């Protein structure tokens, strides 16, 4: 059958507004996807729904569609998106109303069944991660626009691929190939040079969004429209493949994809071929993400300028102590951004950051704000803050649980109103993912002179969050660099380089086909991104910090 060209126009709620129009006008497509959901987004949408029961979906998508629905209809491009968030039926109705107002004949379907909030009292939002076969049912019935709630990000690609190629639920290798393609597309411009360790290899001032040319056997080519910014090479694809993953088995509701079987090769300018992906039966359970309000937080950043920075910081802590005594969670961090004999006041200044969290808004609100501001004329010399503290804002907590497939009523609501249940896989067609035995290490490099230098001179990295955990994928650009990296960067060495991880479980996974190591650090993000317990709450820059750390690197690699 023909190649299926699937593009992406959104990697998160708030991504480039013009991307949908650009993807529809810059080149040919069959399907355009949009990923609007993340753990934090579900919390935001949950708070929206508290204010308005008819809300709960990504309103940006509707505004984009207002100027792009006609373009998609003219070009015969199907649109598949998880922008439905907590209210996919509501967004589907809104799309129908928009189409009617614009006079565009489109068939709109949606997928539901992911909402598990009623089963988890006390949560703001609880949603199961569904697979792609509900999407496939909608498309097979003729839908032009398919709206979902919480599906896996890759399901936005596996669903259209299964519908187009006629795949069944046990064609694991083909489905796994589509899962990998979906994972490569889901974060938008991250596959085309955005957030890329070696960003200076190309022009990334305005990277285009990616697309994948999928084939019936599950292989694909990741590329972008001709003439758009950014670049696609084995490195950019490797970086995205490692993003927010764990071990070699990448489990999802449709299939478990074996990341250790993925083979990448340059297939021409801005084209990377993805092949060899093996698939296995999906796990017997579905992940359910639980979002709840954890309490209230506040923060203030004191600016400490010039001499005696440590003594000034001690004075602030002592003066603030009476106001902090009954607060549950108090965190002080001193960032020594100051330099000696600095030529500007800003470079002569350090930042002392105070973050507080408690279930009592008053404790972290006015009581804290008053105590901090009262020091304005009674504190250390040069007292000022970056911004006055507020009244205390609510923060969220994320956790995940697992339920059997059969506990979720996965339903495709077709464009004509018919409801089609998506059958869960029978027990014999599921398997609990087991750890993959570690592959043998490559031959080490021969002994030779070394030089103390940053890891990032010979390796790239990309990091991200999964609940309270973080992953850091590290890859080498050459075979020799891989031979060194695989031996040098152990889990223990990782802990030494990243002191925050010193007392945390760190698991290292080898992916030799990618010349990559993937480190999973458990608990480094506390209760997840919405809790904002860390300076970098989503661990977005954890990999870049690792690349900046110095090791003894063979001179032959430098």
- What percent of the residues sit in helical stretches (DSSP H or I)? 25-40%
| Main pleated sheet | 11 strands, mixed
- Count of helical stretches: 14
As laid out across the biggest beta sheet, the strand order is 11-12-8-7-1-2-3-6-4-19-20
What form results from the Cα inertia axes? globular
Rounded Rg:
25 Å
Distance between the termini: 47 Å
Mean pLDDT: 96
Strand content: 25-35%
Low-confidence region ranges: none
Structural class: alpha+beta
Give a count of the beta strands, DSSP E runs of length 2 or more. 26
Characterise the protein shown here.
With 558 residues, the protein is of the alpha+beta class. Helices cover 26% and strands 27% of the residues. The chain is built from 14 helices and 26 strands. The protein has an 11-stranded mixed beta sheet with strand order 11-12-8-7-1-2-3-6-4-19-20, sandwiched between helices. Helix 1 packs parallel to helix 3. The model has no long low-confidence stretch (mean pLDDT 96).
Describe the secondary-structure layout.
Elements: E1 4-8, H1 19-25, E2 31-34, H2 39-51, H3 59-75, E3 78-81, H4 88-102, E4 108-112, E5 125-128, H5 133-140, E6 145-147, H6 155-165, H7 172-185, E7 210-214, E8 220-224, H8 234-242, E9 249-251, E10 256-258, E11 263-266, E12 272-275, E13 278-280, E14 285-305, H9 309-324, E15 329-335, E16 349-358, H10 361-364, H11 366-373, E17 384-385, E18 393-404, E19 411-413, E20 419-421, E21 450-454, E22 459-466, E23 469-476, H12 479-488, H13 491-497, E24 506-511, E25 516-521, H14 542-548, E26 550-554
Parallel strand pairs: 1-2, 2-3, 3-6, 4-6
Antiparallel strand pairs: 1-7, 4-19, 5-14, 7-8, 8-12, 9-10, 10-13, 11-12, 14-16, 14-17, 14-18, 15-16, 19-20, 21-26, 22-23, 23-25, 24-25
Helix pairs in contact: 1-3, 3-4, 5-6, 6-7, 9-11
